[in-house]
């Protein structure tokens, strides 16, 4: 799949419905595409779970990147360039993400990729992209090792792949923020910690636990659940008998919602808290028991309350997408726009056309990108991490997520 075929199927979204358009091929360096009005086609790849239990988040990612591409084309953001999107479904499966990365690398029109959602999937994609000098910008990955290396916990920071960037804050920030809120604001002292044994969930739970203990709190016990299972009654019983006054769950909303439900059915009327993986309406609907009081942290401030997001929300609604932009829409748009701005800088520096080493040049330009985005100032540090470290705590009230505290973490 490393050799690109003469026809590249590209996802084009016009009014929320998907249609497939054949794009003529070009040599790396800027062959024109007659189907795009003589402009050079640049494809922004998207990898996300477009089907399966996490598709609500994946569809929001895909649509938001599509909106960024359409906005760039409408405004002629990069003269001579027509942006298109190729979206691939990883179903939140690492092996699928790796295969998608190989496919995107094989399409020489792809100069940047937005995604994936899951940190575990990203681990299998990074090396593929890096070997091809293809930039990757995740709007949702939070595991610190992806950008800071496996020894980040020891204070040893080494960026594994120069092609990896993200617009999401890491779990170092998110886990500590959650622990500080639960201890200082919610007044909890004894927490039962559960994780789903996945890269994201286990890592987040560990960071939370360390910070909670530093604050003076007690981790009364721990347990693990398995992704896609539905019976967590044994864990719920352990929580009930532990005397915990709160539960912290490292994982995603399908399991998190059921865990909260089954804990409450034991009679343990205590809140379940998690990270951005559970911050979704599906977490609430997964529980037959009322789960008012449950908590979640999520990256950034509520998009609906950001003055910088008003145009994005209006344009997204006007585009008629079937699915909402969800938790990562603003960060996905900003990730897509970061690729657009990197391409813009590369084209401008090369006399108005793409250079033959466009991919490598885009990676370099991404490290210098800085603009006012949907979610605030968009820029990357020396590790490819976002410099925007805003976080929010949400609480379930009346069957809805309500923001209760936002802050910028240093």
What keywords describe this structure?
410 residues; alpha/beta; 7-stranded mixed beta sheet; 5-stranded parallel beta sheet; 12 helices; 16 strands; disordered N terminus
Helix-strand layout with pairing:
Layout: E1 7-13, E2 18-24, E3 40-48, H1 55-74, E4 81-89, H2 94-106, E5 110-114, H3 119-131, E6 135-138, H4 145-148, E7 164-166, H5 171-185, E8 190-195, H6 199-214, E9 218-224, H7 233-242, E10 246-250, H8 253-265, E11 272-274, H9 281-285, E12 295-299, H10 310-319, H11 329-349, H12 358-366, E13 370-373, E14 376-379, E15 390-397, E16 400-408
Parallel strand pairs: 3-4, 3-5, 5-6, 6-7, 8-9, 8-10, 10-11, 11-12
Antiparallel strand pairs: 1-2, 12-15, 13-14, 15-16
Helix pairs in contact: 1-11, 2-3, 5-6, 7-8, 11-12
Give a summary of the structure in a few sentences:
The protein contains twelve helices and 16 strands. The chain is α/β, with parallel strands linked by helices and 410 residues long.
Polypeptide structure, described:
- It contains twelve helices and 16 strands.
- The model is unreliable at about 1-30 (pLDDT under 50).
- It is about 35% helix and about 25% strand.
- Helix 1 packs parallel to helix 11 and helix 7 crosses helix 8 (about 255-265).
- A hairpin with a 4-residue loop joins strand 1 and strand 2.
- The protein has about 400 residues and is an alpha/beta fold.
- The protein has helices spanning about 55-75, 95-105, 120-130, 145-150, 170-185, 200-215, 235-240, 255-265, 280-285, 310-320, 330-350, 360-365, and strands at about 5-15, 20-25, 40-50, 80-90, 110-115, 135-140, 165, 190-195, 220-225, 245-250, 270-275, 295-300, 370-375, 375-380, 390-395, 400-410.
- A seven-stranded mixed sheet has the order 9-8-10-11-12-15-16, sandwiched between helices. A five-stranded parallel sheet has the order 4-3-5-6-7.
């Amino acid at each position: 799949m490393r050799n690109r075929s003469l026809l590249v199927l590209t996802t084009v979204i016009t009014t929320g419905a998907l249609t497939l358009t054949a794009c003529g091929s070009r040599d790396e360096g800027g062959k024109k595409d007659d189907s795009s009005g003589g402009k050079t086609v640049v494809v922004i790849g998207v990898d996300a779970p477009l089907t399966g239990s996490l598709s609500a988040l994946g569809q929001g990612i895909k649509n938001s990147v599509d909106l960024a591409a359409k906005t760039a084309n409408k405004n002629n953001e990069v003269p001579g360039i027509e942006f298109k999107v190729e979206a691939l479904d990883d179903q939140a499966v690492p092996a699928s993400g790796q295969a998608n990365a190989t496919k995107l690398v094989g399409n020489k029109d792809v100069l940047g990729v937005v995604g994936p959602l899951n940190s575990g999937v990203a681990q299998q994609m990074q090396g593929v992209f890096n070997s091809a000098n293809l930039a990757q910008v995740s709007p949702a990955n939070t595991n610190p090792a992806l950008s800071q290396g496996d020894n980040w916990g020891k204070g040893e920071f080494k960026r594994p792949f120069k092609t990896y960037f993200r617009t999401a804050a890491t779990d170092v920030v998110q886990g500590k923020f959650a622990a500080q809120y639960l201890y200082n604001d919610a007044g909890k002292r004894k927490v039962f910690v559960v994780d789903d044994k996945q890269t994201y969930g286990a890592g987040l739970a560990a960071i939370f636990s360390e910070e909670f203990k530093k604050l003076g709190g007690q981790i009364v016990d721990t347990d693990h659940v398995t992704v896609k299972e539905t019976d967590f009654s044994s864990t719920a019983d352990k929580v009930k008998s532990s005397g915990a006054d709160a539960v912290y769950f490292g994982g995603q909303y399908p399991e998190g919602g059921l865990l909260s439900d089954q804990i409450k059915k034991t009679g343990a009327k205590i809140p379940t808290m998690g990270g951005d993986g559970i911050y979704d309406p599906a977490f609430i609907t997964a529980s037959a028991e009322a789960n008012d009081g449950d908590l979640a942290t999520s990256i950034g401030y509520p998009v609906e309350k950001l003055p910088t997001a008003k145009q994005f929300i209006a344009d997204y609604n006007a585009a008629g997408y079937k699915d909402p932009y969800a938790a990562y829409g603003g960060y996905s748009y900003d990730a897509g726009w970061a690729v657009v701005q990197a391409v813009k800088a590369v084209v401008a520096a090369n006399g108005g056309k793409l250079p033959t080493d466009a991919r490598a040049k885009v990676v370099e330009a991404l490290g210098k990108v800085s603009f006012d985005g949907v979610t605030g100032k968009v820029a990357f540090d020396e590790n490819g991490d976002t410099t925007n470290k805003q976080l929010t705590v949400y609480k379930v009230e009346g069957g809805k997520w309500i923001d209760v505290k936002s802050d910028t973490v240093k």
